[in-house]
Amino acid sequence: MDIENEVRDFLSSRRARLTPDLAGLPAWGGNRRVKGLRREEVAMLAGVSVEYYVRLERGNLGGVSESVLDALANALQLDEAERSHLHDLARAASLRRPRSAPRARVRPAVQWLLDSMDGTAAYVRNARTDLLATNALGRALYAPVY
């Protein structure tokens, strides 16, 4: 199972086991569509925005601060083992690799454009300033890189 699904299952199952009475909240209306607390209620108890909590529950724990994790653990009334597991999930989410690697090549049309610039050295770099493509004069200029 990947980290996002594990986080999603963990947080939603802990939210489902709490009732408004257990959390010290008034039960508004007799018909609740969800079992346990609503996301809005957990966000309020944790002191975070609803959008942020939804992002967390969807599995995006990467970069979450310790204080937010502790507030979330308090809101969900987690025991020590569950708190530890939540922190472990957050660490694992922070260590995972990015979803897609930066583009290592340029499109053929871009390379054609570079090659058509025969009077000047031309190159294309990405956001990390990696040299992705050059024309003939650019290759001569950046020969040590190649």
The biggest beta sheet, please? 2 strands, antiparallel
Structural class: mainly alpha
From the N-terminal CA to the C-terminal CA, the straight-line distance is: 41 Å
Supply the CATH class of the largest domain. Mainly Alpha
Could you please describe the fold and organization of this structure?
With 146 residues, the protein is mainly α. The chain has 2 domains: 3-95, lambda repressor-like DNA-binding domains (434 Repressor (Amino-terminal Domain)); 108-141, no CATH class. Helix content is 51%, strand content 5%. The protein contains 8 helices and 2 strands. It has a two-stranded antiparallel sheet with strand order 1-2. Helix 5 (66-75) packs antiparallel against helix 6. The protein is elongated and about 75 Å long. It starts with a helix and ends in a 5-residue tail after the last helix.
Brief synopsis:
The protein has two domains: 3-95, lambda repressor-like DNA-binding domains (434 Repressor (Amino-terminal Domain), Orthogonal Bundle); 108-141, no CATH class. Helix content is 51%, strand content 5%. The chain is built from eight helices and two strands, in the order αααααααββα.
Give the helix/strand layout:
Blueprint: H1 3-16, H2 20-23, H3 39-46, H4 50-57, H5 66-75, H6 80-95, H7 108-116, E1 123-125, E2 131-134, H8 136-141
Helix pairs in contact: 1-6, 3-4, 3-5, 5-6
Features:
146 residues, mainly alpha, 434 Repressor (Amino-terminal Domain), 2 domains, two-stranded antiparallel ribbon
